[in-house]
Amino acid sequence: xxxxxxxxxxxxDPSVRSSLKFLIGTVGLHVETFDSAETAxxxxxxxxPSCLVLDVRLRGLSGLDLxxxxxxxxxxxxxxxITGHGDIPMSVRAMKAGAVEFLTKPFxxxxxxxxxxxxxxxxxxxxxxxxxxxxxxxxFESLTAREREVISMVAAGKLNKQIADxxxxxxxxxxxxxxxxxxxxxxxxxxxxxRMIEKLKGLSNA
Amino acid sequence: MSSVPTSRVNTALEDSIxxxxxxxxxxxxxxxxxxxxxxxxxxxxxxxxxxALMSALADSPSTIFQTLAETILxxxxxxxxxxxxxxxxxxxPDVCGKRFYWPAIAGMWNPHVGGGTPRNFGPCGDVLDxxxxxxxxxxxxxxxxxxxxxxxxxxxLLVPFYVAGEAAGTIWAIMHGDRRKFDAEDDRVMASLGxxxxxxxxALMHIEDLKFQVSExxxxxxxxxELARGLExxxxxxxxxxVVGIVMWNLEGAITGAxxxxxxxxxxxxxxxxxxxxxxxxxxxxEWRDRDERAITELKTTGIFQPFEKEYFRKxxxxxxxxxxGALFEGDGNDGVAFVLDLTEQKLAQEKLQDAQQSxxxxxxxxxxxxxxxxxxxxxxxIAHEVxxxxxxxxxxxxxxxxxxxxxxxxxxxxxxxxxxxxxxxxRASAVISRIRTFxxxxxxxxxxLDINEAIQEVLALAGHELEKNRILVECQMTKTLPLVWAxxxxxxxxxxNLIMNGIEAMTAVTDRPRVLWVQxxxxxxxxxLVAVRDSGIGFGSEADRVFTxxxxxxxxxMGMGLPISRSLVEDHGGRLWAKPNVPHGxxxxxxxxxxxxxxx
Lengths: 206, 601
Description:
The complex is a heterodimer of chains A (206) and B (601). Chain A has 206 residues and is of the alpha/beta class. Helices cover 59% and strands 12% of the residues of chain A. In chain A, strand 1 (6-10), helix 1 and strand 2 (30-34) form a beta-alpha-beta unit. In chain A, helix 6 (145-155) crosses helix 9 (190-205). By secondary structure, chain B is of the alpha+beta class. Chain B folds into 4 domains: 6-211, GAF domain (Beta-Lactamase, 2-Layer Sandwich), CATH 3.30.450.40; 242-342, PAS domain (Beta-Lactamase, 2-Layer Sandwich); 348-440, Orthogonal Bundle (Helix Hairpins); 447-593, Histidine kinase-like ATPase, C-terminal domain (Heat Shock Protein 90). Chain B has a 6-stranded antiparallel sheet with strand order 3-2-1-6-5-4, with helices on both faces. In chain B, strands 8-7-11-10-9 form a 5-stranded antiparallel sheet. Classes of the chains: A alpha/beta (206), B alpha+beta (601). Chains A and B meet through helix 1 of A and helix 12 and helix 13 of B.
């Protein structure tokens, strides 16, 4: 994963595009611009931490269409909508579909920059969560079948003795499995382990 | 006198003059009548004969000639006696006839009844030519036509027979042998009986004629009666079918009869008619009396009145619209009949049609308004977008510059580029505005002399539906006979409609006071035409002048273009449009237009 976030500006008006690039650039962010939803769909790099500043009214696919299309591709990049002639139903639709902000042109520079910051933060958080879960999965997959069994029962709140009885083995054996699994999972405490297991469960349930 | 069968009498023979046989003189012995000893008159016999003729006349008039023949045969003691009459058609005596026919023969020649001879083929023609009694001896010597007739006539006495004073035939008596000779008494009695028979015949003919006339008349009357019966049945059918109201009346105002349909229309009973309680004059509302008078005048001159529409009062005082037409009966010219059609349905249909047309009109107005708003809305949206883009760019660029300035991190080259963009976007925005101006003024004005009051009335009609829907009272204060103005009707009406619609919209939220739209037209102090539109709406506070600024609006969905456009249109017409707050509520918009040169409405 690359570190520097990118703001993708999509607007069919060259003046607006260039002025947005200039404005967003003043806070040190890298900006890439597209003049249509179609070119954006080709040029977006899903692996880069990013957000979209997206005009609603575009030639061809509209901004709302692009939002829909990205969701369909499971691309969860946060979107800041900008529009010259917005109405309430349109903004409600956009926000419901997960937009970060809906700004009417012309907007205050601070409002846009705040929205972009929030969007990038959202993207960063999401990526971190995704990364953590991926790591947890990798760790979980490194456990033996017995270790997985044991820590699942630990996470369920069972005592070593109870687990030993249930699995028909010695309590000390359980202690060894448990200790190895905790190490492999990088769990500092039983509480930490429980949280990790919950996260993994949540992922498998989702 | 012929036993010649009719079949043997050919036309060529009848029309030709017969070959002269013996001369007339050689067969005549008329003078001998005087010389022969005359037998004494047998009055008893003669009277019996007259009685017989009288009886025939009374009992069986058609036998009167036969009775005459028999009477003469009896009185003259002759062998044959009969009557020859000139005829044209073979039946009726006619002095101009070309044939004799024999209606009656008694005695030996009786079998020849119904026969006859052409006029000049027998002795009768000679008798009529000489118009006196002639006595013939063996006349077949002169008339070969009669040669075959048997038994032959030894002596024949012929006396003229008169019809209506003219000799139309002969009465004759024949001796076939020499048993006796005719004498003067025979002549006298035949003439006498002939005269009587002629009178009787004429009386008979007269009676026949009368009978004929009577029967003809009876036939005609029967036909008329039949016709009348048929017509009456038809008329009765019409009356009783009650598909139209039928009413009989007189000129004094009485209703003398009416059918169910009429009674239903006016909701009266037949008793009301019978008792003369109802008079058509009283059924007629006052404002229709004049029309009735006109109909009566028409009746008196032509006998009918053409159908016209009027109203009658019903029994309950409500009114029924009717179509009425009628005629006077022949006679004293006082009574007549009329048909009455109930027009309620038609009127309702008409009203519905009018309503439908009105609502269609209202819809059209709505449509016009919607399309006006849509056009304005689209225009506004387009303006918003078009102006917003450069404005956004300007704001972004300027904001970025400010940020860089604050950060003291400004590269002059970057600043220059940003400012250049700002200038360019400013120019772009202003180009958009000027395009809008051009768009608004795009339609060239078509100016004509027009009556401002007419234009106002048309626009009020156009806005009528909106005014009604919002329960707005319109007060007009139009100055009559204003001079005409030189203006584009459509544009002027756009301005008026805009002011009126603004007034209406400003009053829709008002509930605590009357909603009054006041429209005035007059000449102002400078001689221009002044039109003022005032409302009792929410007004615009102290922002009277700002209302003409593009995009300024007090309305939730307004776009703030109506008044600037209106002002621009009025100014194009050489006038002025301004606004003032109205006291205590609402707004007052006024505009003036110069008077068109040298004209007056």
